[in-house]
Structure formats: structure tokens, C-alpha cells
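Repro case for the chain-ordering regression, as requested:
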Amino acid sequence: MSITRRTVLASATLIPLAAITKAQSPATTLSPDQRQTLDALIDRLIPKDELGPGAVEAGVGDYIDRCLADYLAAEKPLFLEGLSNLDVYCLRTQKIAFATLTPAQRDAVLTDIENNQAPNLRGFFNRVRRLTLEGMFGDPVYGGNKNFAGWDLIRYPGAKLAAGPEDQSMKTPPKPYRKELYGAGANHGH
Amino acid sequence: MATNLKPTDVVVVGLGAAGGVAVLPLTRAGLKVTALEAGSWMQPSDFKADEIHNNVRRRVTTGTKVWDEIPTFRTSPDQQARQGAAPTMMNAVGGTSIHYYANSWRFHPWDFKVRSETLRRYGANAIPKGSTVEDWPLTYDDLESYYDTIEYEIGVSGKAGNIKGFINPKGNVFEGPRSREYPMPPLRDTEFTDMLQASARKAGFSPHRSPAAINSQPRDGRSPCAYHGYCDTGGCHVKAKNSTAVTTIPAAQKTKNLTIVERAHVTRILTDDNGKTTGALYIKDGQEFFQPAKVVLLASYTYENVRMMLLSKSKAFPNGLANNHGQVGKHYIGHWANREVTALFPFDLNLWYGANAQGVVVNNWADDSFDHTGLGFIGGASLTINHELHPIAASSMPTFNRAPQWGAKWKKFVAENANRWVGAYAQCNSLPYENTWLDLDPEVKDKLGDPVCRITSGPKENEPRASAHAAAKAEAWFRAAGAIEVITVPNTVGPNLSTHAVGGTRMGAKPESSVVDRWGFAHESPNLGILGGSVLGTHGARNPTLTIQALAWRTAEHLVKNWKTLAG
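-- result from build under test --
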């Protein structure tokens, strides 16, 4: 076993290995098809481009999947209905499922939803957009914001426990602080 | 069948911002106090630098029972009220003082005599239509020494603008006279707060730094603020925020006269046939207990104070505790406060770190500090612009009609601008109205089967006008600071559920129009004291906690001085 930061921390605090393994693979709940549809959607909300990773690359799908498995389990049926309605709408208007549309076609579908052309999808769309922001810009411990992609994008210098005067300067931006405060198997937020 | 416990001198229901203050003068005087708190102690390790933990999942503010007790809301009596989405209170030792912004304001002298001052200066027609506003039964001067006591007991940082009439433009020049300087200087100045102060002066305003119950320097063996940017809705990991859980409650424990019962869910206040309270009934870990006491101090959040009284029916009070005049729930005020003006700058602001209470405030357009002749409203709003921006909130920014809400263009927009925007927080002087009150919901119940509190809040004219007037001043301030876009989303409907909910058991001279007397004791039940926002008769243009705490201390001190009369 290679010596990683996690194993060092774990041995230092005597966390049983089983607990770490569990923390490293949190429960997910979406089927591969459902996850594919979700990824196809969040990819259009925050696409990968010259500015950096998009929602898919930043692990927003993992964030949402984990939420639905745990914290938002009660919301899961409604969420799945939304995913399903999205495909129904695409099959009706484009003859193929959402995930198999080209990016431009997917954008057109999302624009329809925004313009209330598919009114039963508006609430779902808003919810996915909100969860995408949470996954992209929230703490990486929840599965999203991988490699701090979200924080790099908006120049958030990073979560830390104390900030000095230099960190609050407008004219001289603080150096990014890119360490996970709550990683390494911390049973955090549950 | 409830287990009868050993009698105590005073039972305090709720050990939060108000009850947590009152226990100190009581226990110092040697009274035996039992505090019944629905929540538990929280530790610094419960508090995280994590927006999802604090603001999305509300892990700090979610108590043991608040989710079942969220009030319902409607805007007119012919509607069915709907339950709110999230609680505005919490259960823990220290209560909401654990996670609040800790802005610690004195109310303006005008707030205590809105009615008589308005009549004097503008005439009877200037009193807003439908308002039930009365002068408080005490003045700012009556409360001054208690404000001072709280500022020094819990620790407030700030800069005085008026010490015994001597005006210092570095502080709030509009404030009522205070007897001495704050115990600590304001939280750290930054390039941003410097810029805001300079631009406010350029616009002709009188800016100053926010007063905060946060240590700006080491105090009582506790650390100064770490400025890490997770103060809002989070507790303090270094105990620099002066919640009652780290200040007055531990001090009261040192007297050995305070017993704290955690996880005590109080269900009723009991009374004898003469209308005197006899103690509190509560459930803890599935068991029911009765705590007898000579005096009951009800000290929960406004919605719960009112609900507890309306639920506590008895032979002496068939319509609820101390409610034979039908005043419990009346004169409720949801604070008219919002971030309605938002600005975009052409340079990075770097607001991420710091604390909400690390702000700059303009008070020129609040209270009666300017001539209202011909304006069509009384009062106004304070304006605050402050540090502390979290990344999810930052990326949820308005796009100022410069970008869509998603996709590559949105990504480019937030990449550039999430670090370049800020809102101004306008808090209005807010009044009680006939069309706005609290009662029990006829349908929605908590887990025990007791109805939750129902808010009925009808339309108002005065507050939206005052708010719009102040919003225009906020725009001028932002423009003077170099903003390239300013948008105003007018607050025309006011709050539904409020974290600044006051009134409902207001303080007054007569039982026909108020519930408690000028000392905070019920007109109809002499050994029942009420602490908390529910006793306020008006809401000032600023955060209410310090006023609530000053009143709580005053009520407790009055009880100590008049123990034989009140407890006899």
C-alpha cells in the first residue's frame, strides 16, 4: 500500500481501515442510464472549455448522485421523474433520448425549457441548476469541485480556518489555498 | 403522568440570546435557576468552514425540534396559510446567538417613541394607516445603562459616535448618547471597507463600521476573530463570536446556581386559579416532567413565545396564558429587511473572507434622522455592505442582463464577475399593524400534535416606501464607489417568516393593548416574565439582538430587586 496523505492521517488518528474505505466510496443511487442523462444535462449548464473543466469533469454528477443517495433521498422520486420527463420530451420532439443529442440540440432543448415550452420540466431544470452550482462550487468533500476546479474558476482562494489581513486585500489577490479541510475520511456533514 | 421535580426559584424556558443573558444577573444574586433548553451544547468542532454544511444543509441551525415547528404564513385571513420552508430559529444552548451575524446595535431613541415624535413633527396623518404603533413604555435613556452592560458583559466591538453628546464622525453620529466607548475597537479595516467609507463620504453620507458581538482582540481568554468567512449561519470555531454559550451562560454556571436541562421540550406553562404561573411542563427523552418554580421566564423565539402562551390554556386563562385581553399574538412585526440593491464592479472585491459583521454602515436615511415632510412615509432604513461571500452564493449572482443563466457564456461571466459583486442590506424601521398578527394554525401540527404558529401579514405602504427611498441612496453609494451596474429589486411584499421576528407579546402601559409591563412581566400574570423579541413594540432599522438582550437583563434585574413582590 502506498503511503498517501489519507493513510498517514488515518494511522495518526487510528481510524479503522474499513471506515476509510467506506468514506472513500460513498453511496450512489442513479442507474448508469440515469447518470448518463444527468451528465449530458450538467455538461451543458457548465461546459468544459478554455476556461477549465466543466460540471462533468468537476464531479458534479457525483455530488448530485451522492445527495440523492443520502441527504436528498426523499427528493429522489421527483428527481427521477424529471430525468424521465426530459427523455420523454426529447423522444417526442427529436425522436431520440436527451443524452444522444448533440450539444447544440441539447442546448436547444434546455432553451425550450427555460422558455416554458416544456413547462413540466422547468422546476426540474431549476433544481438541477441549483444542485450543479452546489456541486461545482461546494467543498470537494461532497464529491464535486474536483481538484478545486470550481474555486479556481471564480478565484475563490479556498476554505481555511483563519484569514489574515493580506487575505482580505482587494488590490493584491491572496494566493489560492488548495488543501481539503475535511477530506481524509472525516465523517463530515452527516 | 408527569414526574414532579424539586421546586426552583426561577425556571427559564429557552437558553438562547435572551434567556442566556438573563440567567447571569439572576444567579449572581443567588437565585436558583433551572434553564430548560430544547437543544444541547454545541462545540467548536461542530462548526465548519463549509458552505454546504452551514448554508445549504443548515447543519448548525438545525435543532432537535425546530423543523416540526416552522410557522405557516398567509397574506390575508381568507387564505389558507402554508408552512414555511426552513426554520428561522434553532435549538441549542446559546440559541441563534451561536450562528447569527452578531451585528450588535442599539435601537435609535426614535424607535421608542415613534408615535409621539411623529405626531409632534408631522401630525396625525403621518401615522401609517392601520398601524397600531404606540410609544414604548420606556425610552432609550431608560435602556442605555443596560445596553452598556450587555456590550461589556458579552463583548461588542465598534466605534462610538456619540458619547454623552460628544459626536465622533468615526462612529454612528446618529446614535443615541452612550455613556462610554465600546469595550473593543471595530473588526479589522480592509481595503474594501476603506473604499466604502470613502465613497459614502463622497456621496455625502456618514459611514461607520458595524458594531459586532465578535472579538476584535483577545478577550476573557478567548481568541479574536479568525476572519475565515464562515460566520453566517455557522458557529465560531475559535469562540470569537460572543454568543451567550461562550459568555453569560458559562459565567452563570460559575455561580453554581444554574441548572441547565438539555433536550427539554417544554410543552406548557401551568398556572393556578389566580393566574399565577406554577412552573413548566416538559418532555425529555420521552419522559414528562413538571418543574415547579416561583417565577417563570419565557425566553424562546417570538413565534414560540406566542405559541407557548396560546397553547397554555387554563381555568384562569381560557384563551391562553395572560391572554384575557386578547393581545397575545397581536402587534407582531416581521422585520422589513432585504438585500435589494446589488452592484457589479469592474475590479475584484475579494470579499470571500472576513465576517458579515465586518461591514460599513450608512444611517443617514433611517429613523427620523432626515426630514420626511412630503415623502409619504416615516422611518427609513440603515444600509450595510459587508464582507463574507461563499463560493456557491457568489456563483448564484445576478447576471445584470449581461449573460444567460447557464452554458459557456454564463461560465465566462461568473469566471470574471463572481468576485466582483456585492449587495447592500437595507433594514427598515418596521411597525405593527392591525392586519398582521400571530395565532395558532388550525391544521398544521408538530410531532406532539400541537398546532404550529400561524403568521398573517397583510400589505403595508409605509415600509416599502421607506425601503425604496433607502435603495436609491444605496445606488448612489455604489455609483460613488465605481460600480458599473446597479440593480434594484424592490422589496414590496416584506418578509414571510423572519429571522428578525418581534412583537406578539409587546411591552406597554395597558393590558388592553399590550401583554407585558415596562419591566417585561405579564399584566395578567405577575410572576411570568417574557424575554425575547416578542416584547418589542417597534422594530428598529437595525438587527434586534442587542436590544433583546438589554431588555432581558433589565427584566432579570427587576426580578432580583423585587423578588418578594414578584415571587411571593
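Ordering looks correct now. The interface with chain A takes residues 48-53, 56-57, 59, 188, 190-192, 195, 226-230, 237-238, 347-350, 352-354, 387, 391-392, 394-396, 405-408, 410-412, 414-415, 418-419 of chain B (CB under 8 Å).
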